[in-house]
Amino acid sequence: MNREIYEKNMEALKNKFPMWAEKLASVKRKKRNFDVLAENSYFGNTILKVNDNGKILYLNGKYAPDEVGANWIKKNELKDYTPIVIIGISNAVHIKKIIDCAPKTCNILIYEPSFELFRREMEEVDLAFLFKKDIPVGIIVDELNDIEIQDYFDLFISYDNMVLLKTYLSGNYKKLFPEKVEEFVKKLRKHVFDIEVSWNTQVRYTNVTATNLFKNFPYLCEGYGVQELKNILPKDFPVIIVSAGPSLNKNIQDLKLAKGKACIIATDTAMKPLLNAGIIPDLFVIVDGLKPGKLFEHKDISKTAMVTMTQVSVEPMELHKGKKFFYYSGSKMEDEILYELSRAKNKDCTLPNIPTGGSVANTAYSLGINMGSEIIILIGQDLALTGNKTHADGTFQDKMEEIDVKNSDYFEVDAVGGGKVLTRSDFKLYLDWFETRIKEWKNITTIDATEGGALIHGSKVMTLKSAIKKYCKKEFNVKWHIDHSKKLFDGENKEIAVKFIEGIPKKLNEVEKKAKEGLRYYEKLESMGKKSNINDNQVLKLYKRIKKINHYMEQDYMAETVIDSLKGMEYSLRPLVYQTQDTMKDEFSYISEQGKAMMYGVAIGAGEIKKIEEETIGAYVKKLQEREKGKEK
């Protein structure tokens, strides 16, 4: 035992998990069927090896364990809000590497399938960094807290981020703990499957994102970029973010005092209560791809400019007839058309990415700062079940029903005004995001004038009337700046959009053709794997063709657009944790099975999107062409 490391680890563990430290110190060692030994690698790292009945198994590599984690990171793109599941602590070098390289918004869940191995890791490996209170890491250790596995899954992996899920299986853990690892992976797969239970056919995997993108694309061609709004506000001119929490009903009328003296930005769900109260916001924000149209069925909805993206719900876009300002959606098709526009204008016309913590209120907050204000006032931002309700009256229903809070989905957080209030995991994520941004953006003054709900630590708490009296002191015509914004595709640049859209059917046909070609290659690989004698040259030649097809699928904007619509299928048809196959034939079978499933899905998806294209952007171009013919006559 390395006494110095052990004491350091135990001290850190006591601060975060005192019950764990007590159990580690008090529970007698079990008689194991394996011994854990420590040694130094050639590069000076501590490495662990297991003597399993005379067989030496190195955990996470023998010579350069730090390279194992580095190689995994190279192969796996870690985006914002990616949930990362790591099986096996081992020498923790890979965990440090992942924490250092992953965006700070990523949540990392670590599973150690052996209490006794964890004890030895505490004795030999510096793990103190894992027990820091501010680190975004969840830890599950067998016999310590393994009953919390599902709770961690529920907290870390949701519908919104499951397509980003990445998994890391530490070396030789499957051999040492086959049953534990298999059971954990089964639970992980089941969790993802349960989220997607309604997606049970391949055609249905062409998801709502693709439909929204193609139906909303004409609005992009007629719309504005949020860069038109950048820094239009004086620094001392406040922005009021109006959310639809239950407390909004308390102070909504007070907002009338701020009209003309603050930029009022509403979240989508708050629009009907505001309009019914006679308040016309300057802007409203929508981020949801499934937001119901009934929230926007109001005669005055088009009087407020919308801040949106191409992948939001179609109904709100259709109901709203006013100006639409677009921010970056991550769509490759969107990237391509704006790249063409940038070349034509000889300047960057790509859309800005607005930082978000997953909620529309987070996005609205970032938008207000992007517009130049350094004073942000929040109202209706309960982030809790105020009065056992999730939203204000007049949003989804005229009178919102009270929620039964007796089940385990709800827990307590600090409340505005003292005491505690119930919240749920998604609200807590949004709350954490606000608190993190407030710490980071030190020049921004954030006032929480919600008058109820969860306390946002770091904000200044006051009533809305007091906030308006203190900060809303001068007039500024926000509407004038919005009205004088320039369209993305203005004047002669409209032709760029038309030509681009005209070429989409051809691109979809190309993707479908390539996918069918790739399907044939994988079928041929499958046939090769069944033969008793495998010709290496033939295999190499076939692999090169498959690699070329895969490269096309990764680089072509339309192929990526189709694949983005198949994320659900990817996680249903492909194992979440990569397993090395025992024989070459097994590997051929595995590769061909996954490749065939994906190529078939791409071919199906391209065909489905062609139908959507004809009904949406294809119809849009025909209307434009007919309009031009009418002008000529």
Properties at a glance:
3 domains, 18 strands, alpha/beta, four-stranded parallel sheet, nine-stranded parallel sheet
Task: Please specify the SSE layout and strand pairing.
Blueprint lengths: L2 H14 L1 H9 L7 E7 L5 E7 L2 E5 L5 H11 L7 E5 L5 H9 L5 E6 L2 H10 L12 E5 L7 H8 L9 E4 L3 H4 L1 H18 L12 H15 L1 E2 L13 E4 L5 H4 L11 E5 L3 H6 L6 E3 L19 E4 L5 H6 L4 E3 L5 H14 L14 H11 L4 E5 L30 E5 L5 E5 H16 L4 E4 L11 E2 L2 H8 L6 H6 L10 H9 L1 H26 L6 H20 L1 H8 L2 H7 L10 H32 L1 H16 L1
Parallel strand pairs: 4-5, 4-7, 5-6, 8-13, 9-10, 9-14, 10-11, 11-12, 12-13, 14-17, 17-18
Antiparallel strand pairs: 1-2, 2-3, 15-16
Helix pairs in contact: 1-2, 3-4, 6-8, 9-23, 13-21, 19-20, 19-23, 20-21, 23-24
Organism: Roseburia faecis
InterPro entries: MptE-like
Protein name: 6-hydroxymethylpterin diphosphokinase MptE-like domain-containing protein
Textual characterization of the structure:
The protein is an alpha/beta fold and 633 residues long. The chain folds into 3 domains: 193 residues, no CATH class; 265 residues, no CATH class; 136 residues, no CATH class. The chain is built from 24 helices and 18 strands. It has a 9-stranded parallel beta sheet with strand order 8-13-12-11-10-9-14-17-18, with helices on both faces. Strands 6-5-4-7 form a 4-stranded parallel beta sheet. A 3-stranded antiparallel beta sheet has the order 1-2-3, covered by helices on one side. Strand 4, helix 4 and strand 5 form a beta-alpha-beta unit. Helix 1 packs across helix 2. The longest helix has 32 residues. The radius of gyration is 28 Å and the shape is flat. The chain starts with a helix and ends with a helix. About 4% of the residues have low confidence.
